[in-house]
Amino acid sequence: QPRTMQFLRGLKSLDGFVKTKADSVARKRTLCGAILTLLAIVIGTWLVLSELGLYFTSDTKSTLTVDQSEGAEHLSIAVDISFWHIPCPDLELEVQDAKGRLYSPKRQHLSKRDLALGAEPSQPGGIGFFSAPQGGVSRPTGKRGCRVYGDVDVNRVAGNVHVVPRAFSAKGGMSMYRGMPIDDLLHYNASHTVHTLRFGPAFPGQENPLEGVTTGSDKPAQFQYFAQVVPTRYQHLSGLVTDANQYSVTQHVASSDPTSPYMVPPGFVLRFDISPIIVTLSSASPGIGKLLTGVCAVIGGVYAVTSLLDKAIHGSIAAVAKVD
Known about the structure:
Elements: H1 2-12, E1 19-20, E2 27-28, H2 31-56, E3 59-66, E4 74-83, E5 91-97, E6 108-115, E7 145-155, E8 159-165, E9 168-171, E10 174-177, H3 182-185, E11 192-199, E12 213-215, E13 221-235, E14 241-255, E15 267-274, E16 277-284, H4 288-323
Parallel strand pairs: 13-15, 13-16
Antiparallel strand pairs: 1-2, 3-16, 4-7, 4-11, 5-8, 6-7, 8-15, 9-10, 11-12, 13-14
Helix pairs in contact: 1-2, 2-4
C-alpha cells in the first residue's frame, strides 16, 4: 500500500551502513541497514548510560590494620528503642563500664515518649500483656508503652547499657533486685523494637544490624545483646575523614525465673566491647579519562559489530539472489 511503502522508504533513509552497488559507484540504503542502525543506537545509548552510572558511583575499598592511635576518649551511643508494654515512669536507663562503675546521668542525653495503646507490632505467636494484681508499682497492662531515644556519652572502653524496670539498679556488673516483690516483677514484658542503635557518627553505606529488629517473648525475660564494636575510618571523595564505628552482634534471651538463684530482671541489656582492629574505608570514583575511554570503546564497538552484521546479511541476500 502507498502508506506502507512511504514508511519503508523513510525507514531506509535511516540506514547508517550505505552499500555500494556492484555495477557502479552509486550507494544505496536498505531496510535491513536501517533496522540495524536503530538497534545500534538503542544498544549504544544504553551502554553509554551504564558507563555514566559507573562514573558517578563511588567504589569503596577496605583495609584492616591494628589501631595504634590514641583515638577519641569518648564514644557516643545513639539509641532509639520502643518498649511496647512498659510505661515510661517504670523505665530506668543505666550505663556502666566493664568494672561496674556507673556513668553520671549528665552524660545521658535521653528523652522518653509515651506510645499509644495498641501501637505494638504484631509478632508470630503473639506478644501479649501480662496481667497483674492491684497495688504496687504501675503495670504494663492497660498502660502506654515507652520510647526511649537520644544518645549516651561513654568512655571508649567496654561497658554495658541497661534498660530495666526502675525498681532495679546496676551493681557489680549485674542487675540486682531492690525492694520489688517478685509478683510485681513477673508482670513486666520487655518486648521491644530497636529503631536506632549506632556507635558514633553515621557514614555512607553504614549497616547497623540491630536497627529495625523487633524482639519479644511470651514470658518475662531479659533481652541481652553482645556487640563487638569495630573502629572505622571513612574517607569521603572530598577528602573529609569520618571516624565512626561498625559492630556485629549476638543475642541471648535470659528467662526471669524466680526459682533460679541467678534470676535477672526483665529488660534490655547491651554489652559492648571495642575491637583493637580498625577498618579504613576509602571511597573513590573512576577518573574522567576512564569515562571517555569507556564511551569511545562502546561507540566504536557497537558500530563495528553492527557493521559486520549488516555486511553479512547483505552478502547473504545478494548470494541468494544470484542463485535464483
